[in-house]
Amino acid sequence: MTLQRVMHVEDDESIRTVAEIALTDVAGFTLLSCDSGQSALAQAEAFAPQLILLDVMMPQMDGLQTLAALRQLPSLRTTPVVFMTAKIQQAEKQRYLDVGAIGIIEKPFEPMLLGDMLSELYQQSIAS
User: 0.90 exceeded by the pTM?
Assistant: First the structure.
């Protein structure tokens, strides 16, 4: 199965814009870009993402809270999640993996490689 539909949740507009270009123009994905956890919750089920790319540090609802809320939606209970963060210490990385993330991408990320990184993580998650 090929990755096609990605939901990206990121409060920083400049990062959202770079990721949107990387994921749509370079990787060819269909993208739902959300600026908050609340926005993601409101749109996620209708979009039915195959993978969720989730920022860790966001106001109101951080990435971990957003993931917990998304997991309450029956259609998203097992959707693979990749966290994106600028703070990546081993203990935190393990915490994200413990809550079910299939990977962590460090900011700043390489836009030209973002789609390939997500595709690779997605393929690994559906193979296991």
Answer: yes
- Work out whether the CA dihedral 114, 24, 81, 18 comes out positive or negative: positive
Residue whose pair of structure tokens reads 């370079």 in the numeric block: 26
Q: How far apart are CA 70 and CA 77, in angstroms?
A: 7
Question: Each residue of 16-26: pLDDT tens digit?
Answer: 999 999 999 99
Strands (E) in the chain, as ranges, are 5-9, 30-34, 51-55, 81-85, 103-106
Burial degree of 1 (CB within 10 A; 0-12, 13-18, 19+): exposed
Burial of 21 (0-12, 13-18, 19+ CB in 10 A): middle
Q: Where are the beta strands (DSSP E) in 80-126?
A: 81-85, 103-106
